[in-house]
Amino acid sequence: MAAINRISGERSGGVEVPLKGDGRAVSSSGGRGSSFDQTVQIMELEALFKELEDVGTKLSSVPSTAIMSRYRELVRQLLDRALKGVRLRRDLKWRRGDKRGFLVVEQTDAWLEELEQVLFRENSRTRVLRLMEDIKGCLISLLF
User: What range defines the domain where residue 109 resides?
Assistant: First the structure.
């Protein structure tokens, strides 16, 4: 039993993933809270952002309704995850007048609508790329 305690107290075999925003690393073998869950969530978010970028590239080169709906779906998934985090942060530490998260969500929705209009009416590639970057920026500021 003593050997098990000694081994479990060591920090060997852990995977460290840097968290964006605070500069600290999360170790999967120990550390802050549920670090394995955090690592999995970060990996899922990175995969969603990668897919969002890939779909955005396709959308800017070949605008279509199917690709636009996939792009919108990915943004919605990321917004849902961000809103869950905002609710959790509000439950843990509520700040009076903290509407930043919801304003960013509203702005992201407005940019999605504008992106769809630009794609199918104006077909301005530079404006499309700028709007997609603005949307990603909003998502990043909400999630990290």
Answer: 39-143
Neighbours of 88 (CB within 10 A): 10
pLDDT at 128: 80
- Whether residue 26 lies inside any domain: the answer is no
Global confidence as pTM: 0.56
* Residue 124 near residue 118, CB atoms below 8 Å: yes
Query: Nearest to residue 45, comparing CAs of 21, 69, 13?
Result: 21
Alpha-carbon distance of 41 to 43, in angstroms, equals 5
In DSSP terms, 30 is beta-bridged to 27
Model confidence over 90-118: pLDDT tens digits?
444 445 555 555 666 777 877 788 888 77
81: domain CATH number? 1.20.120.490
DSSP 30: B
